[in-house]
Write a structure and sequence with these properties.
6 helices; six-stranded parallel beta sheet; Rossmann fold; single chain; alpha/beta; 19% strand
């Protein structure tokens, strides 16, 4: 059973994600954190398979937390959960080691798909992100140098 850690500075969002996960007993919510520093500590303690990580948080943001978690725990999958449709945020997130990019606006419909794809060693990007932008960023990230 894959274990999921939710990281968001808004308790309301954390509750919402919990509610979305409840009908799926094959996914275990192992904990939640309200900022990047707590996320790093909790990944060390709880060893989740997947982290749902907000991008914009006070203190350490989700992209920096992703970078640090992935360097210490390369097998942990991280899905950035964000309001930002920005190609620059998407690019920074994948460069930091994110495996997925889920817009909060898509979360209700797409969360389970994103979790399944990422836990199966795939990459996931919300369907509302422009496909041309996605293709260019993937090419850029995969190219050496």
């Amino acid at each position: 059973m894959p274990r999921v850690l939710i990281v968001d500075d808004h308790a309301f969002i954390r509750r919402g994600v919990q509610t979305l996960l409840q009908p799926y007993p094959e996914w275990e919510l192992c904990g939640e954190a309200g900022n990047g520093n707590d996320a790093i500590r909790m990944v060390d303690e709880l060893q989740p398979e997947v982290v749902l990580m907000d991008v914009t948080m006070p203190g350490m943001n989700g992209i920096e937390a992703t970078r640090l978690i992935r360097s210490a725990h390369p097998n942990v999958k991280i899905i950035l959960l964000t309001l930002h449709e920005s190609s620059e945020v998407l690019r920074s997130g994948f460069r930091a080691g994110a495996n997925g990019y889920l817009l909060k606006a898509d979360a209700e419909e797409e969360l389970m798909k994103a979790l399944r794809v990422v836990s199966g060693d795939g990459s996931y990007i919300s369907p509302k992100i422009d496909p041309v932008v996605v293709t260019n960023i993937i090419k850029e990230i995969r190219s050496p140098g």
